[in-house]
Amino acid sequence: MKIIINVLLFFIICNPSISHCYDGLSLEECIGRLVVLHDENFSYQKDDNPFGSAILYDDMVDLYINHVKKMPEYDRVAFFWFAMWHLDFDGHYMELFQELVYEDCGDVFMNKLEKYIEKEKQLQRSKSRLYLSEKVLAGLIITEKNHRKLYQ
Fold first, then answer.
1. CA 67 to CA 21: how far, in whole Å?
2. In sequence order, what are the residues at sequence separation of 6 or more whose Cβ sits closer than 8 angstroms to the Cβ of residue 143?
3. Based on C-alpha coordinates, what's the Rg of the chain?
């Protein structure tokens, strides 16, 4: 019995998909934290800084590095999926976001995005979401091509 318990404890500690729960914030807590930070940045609760996107991007990266990066791939994709839809990155910060997604879980995220785009084109529920998803996918494809050139 003691051996079984020790083996189970070892498995739980060494398996990141199980142990991440005890290592910090959960996925839902990270997303909730981003919602609060977004509201604070864009309602001028912190200060009158016009660069809310920069601050929010930095906050997202901090949460990613300290908590989300340790989570299973499924949760990391969900985190980026939320960020894509709700954090309104544009310009340079969209490029940085795409680079971060590509380096972490690019293939899985791109596959999910391609399936979404295909379904959205069939159902035509939201032109703005279709536009955003195509923009993000195009950026991820460019990032992928740049990485291939860089590492050949």
1. 10
2. 98, 99, 102, 106
3. 18
Q: What angle do CA 69, 71, 74 make, to 5 degrees?
A: 105
Q: What are phi and psi of 71, to 5 degrees?
A: -80, 165
| Contact status, residue 80 vs residue 109, Cβ threshold 8 Å | yes
| Cβ pair 61, 30 in contact under 8 A | no
Q: Are 70 and 20 in contact (CB under 8 A)?
A: yes
Tokens of 110: 């791109």
Q: Residue 46 corresponds to which tokens in the numbers above?
A: 């912190």
**Per-residue confidence in pLDDT tens, the chain, 152 aa:** 555 544 444 555 555 444 444 457 899 999 999 888 888 877 766 666 666 678 889 999 999 999 999 999 999 999 999 999 988 888 889 999 999 999 999 999 999 999 999 999 999 999 999 999 999 999 999 999 988 887 77
